[in-house]
Amino acid sequence: MSPETSHESAFAMMMQHTLSAPTSPTKTSPTKRLSPQSGILTSTKVLTRSGFAPAGQLRTGDVLITRNASLIPILSAEKKTVRTRIVCFQSAMLDAQGYHGDLHLPAHQLVNIRGWRAKALYGKAETQVSAASLIDDDLISDDGMREVEVVRLNFQCWATLYVGGLEVLSAHSFDDQLRPVYEPFAASMPSA
């Protein structure tokens, strides 16, 4: 099986598990539903035109520096408290100096990976994957289910953000529709 085929297969299995996940309220929080979430924890630092700033302080109109769209203004910043599985990226994995500290992301948040990691795991020079798919139980670990406040940053087009030492994709319709609409995934999905 080629790396691309195994990646598509893993993504299909993740989607099947996601679609079969219970959607009834959880016992710990009767009003909150457990569902896939993308977003950035409010304390996570994001690269803006003025330097790094906590995601929870970003507002509509703030300008971020992105990998794919250069400078781009935020159209909306939606804060939401969710119960979701969290993935911890240790600072040693993010950069040698430990500048950013550990990074925590929702398991379904899409992360852009490049270089040796993308080549070794997916046979590509660059790809976008869920944070959970990178868990190695060493430098990237499952931090369990937690209730957290996240910010979903929306732009005129999707954007790759510089977040705490990683490249993270902006909010996307995956959360709302439980279907990928981001181009690389949509192109590889069979039509319904």
Summarize this structure as a short list of keywords or feature phrases.
4-stranded antiparallel beta sheet; 20% helix; 192 residues; alpha+beta; disordered N terminus; 5 helices
Could you please describe the fold and organization of this structure?
- With 192 residues, this protein is an alpha+beta fold.
- The chain has five helices and twelve strands.
- The chain has helices spanning 3-19, 91-94, 115-122, 174-177, 183-188, and strands at residues 40-41, 45-48, 51-54, 63-66, 70-73, 76-89, 103-106, 110-114, 126-130, 140-154, 160-163, 166-169.
- The protein has a four-stranded antiparallel β-sheet. It has a four-stranded antiparallel β-sheet with strand order 9-8-12-11.
- It is globular, with a radius of gyration of 16 Å.
- The protein starts with a helix and ends with a helix.
- Residues 1-35 and 174-192 have low confidence and may be disordered.
Question: Helix segment count?
Answer: 5
Low-confidence stretches: 1-35, 174-192
Averaging pLDDT over every residue, what do you get? 75
Instruction: Please give the number of β-strands.
Output: 12
What strand line-up does the widest sheet have? 1-10-6-7
Rg calculated over all Cα atoms:
16 Å
Report the biggest beta sheet as strand number plus sense, adding barrel if it closes: 4 strands, antiparallel
H/E element order: HEEEEEEHEEHEEEEHH
